[in-house]
Automatic annotation (TrEMBL):
The keyword Amino-acid biosynthesis does not apply. This is Cytochrome C oxidase subunit IV family protein. It is a multi-pass membrane protein. It comes from the Bacteria. Belongs to the cytochrome c oxidase bacterial subunit 4 family.
Length: 106
């Protein structure tokens, strides 16, 4: 922080903190690990199909969160409006999927 004096008023100038590549490398390794776990679950073959599907869905949700948080920078301040609109889109899409499944099997 740098202190500057302007018109008798002291102001504080803040710098933008640069994250550096460390968090991106960790997020990349985490994404690769999630992908390898998903591939291993499918390649194992002898694993229960219901367990495999649930594991794949959990890996997909974690992968989306990592992608949005680190690569799309949704974890940073000032991204509330895009997060709200994306949550609304997920809600509408989820409602449409549930309604379609209900309509097909009813």
């Amino acid at each position: 922080m740098v202190n500057q004096e302007t018109n008798g008023v002291q102001s504080v100038k803040r710098r933008h903190r640069h994250e550096g590549p460390q968090k991106h490398i960790i997020a990349f390794i985490f994404s690769i690990a999630l992908t390898l776990i998903a591939f291993a679950a499918v390649a194992a073959g002898g694993v229960n199909i219901a367990f495999t599907v649930i594991l794949l869905l959990v890996m997909a949700v974690l992968q989306v969160l990592v992608q949005l948080g680190y690569w799309m920078h949704m974890k940073d301040k000032g991204h509330l409006i895009p997060i709200v609109f994306m949550a609304g889109g997920f809600f509408v899409a989820g409602t449409a999927i549930v309604a379609a499944l209900y309509w097909m099997w009813w």
